[in-house]
Write a structure and sequence with these properties.
The protein is mainly α and 133 residues long. The chain is 70% helix and 0% strand. The protein is globular. The termini are far apart. The model has no long low-confidence stretch (mean pLDDT 90).
């Protein structure tokens, strides 16, 4: 089950939102500016809407993988492994000759899903410690 979950995580990571957003707008982002299939390149080449769509799509795939792992009641270390595999899938998609995005938006989605309190730093003691030091 673990191997299947990790394989599925990698394959979900292979879905690059920027590629499909670029196709909708008739732009090949692999040939524009940074040649990167990420939200930043989509935003700089196409505009704000493309940035937001790509950011949301790539973040949601990180949330999806963590959510599936928790729904299937997998151990936390297995879910964290799945989170790593979805990011690796975004960085190195096999269908694009291992040339993907930078993984920032996917990392944000994974971080939000794994630990929202740490991500938003809503623990007052943690925020106090950070502010003092």
């Amino acid at each position: 089950m673990i191997g299947l979950y990790w394989l599925l995580s990698y394959l979900i990571g292979n879905i690059l939102t920027a590629y499909f957003v670029g196709k909708i707008y008739g732009v090949n982002l692999q040939e524009e500016r940074s040649k990167n299939l990420g939200a930043r390149n989509a935003g700089s080449v196409i505009g704000k809407t493309a940035f937001i769509l790509t950011l949301l799509g790539d973040s949601l795939k990180g949330v999806l993988v963590v959510g599936l792992g928790r729904m299937w009641q997998l151990d936390e270390w297995v879910v964290i492994g799945g989170a790593a595999w979805v990011i690796i899938g975004h960085l190195f998609p096999m269908w694009l000759k291992l040339n993907g995005g930078k993984g920032v938006a996917t990392f944000i989605g994974v971080g939000l899903a794994l630990s929202p309190s740490l991500f938003f730093m809503d623990d007052p003691w943690y925020c106090t410690y950070i502010c003092i030091y």
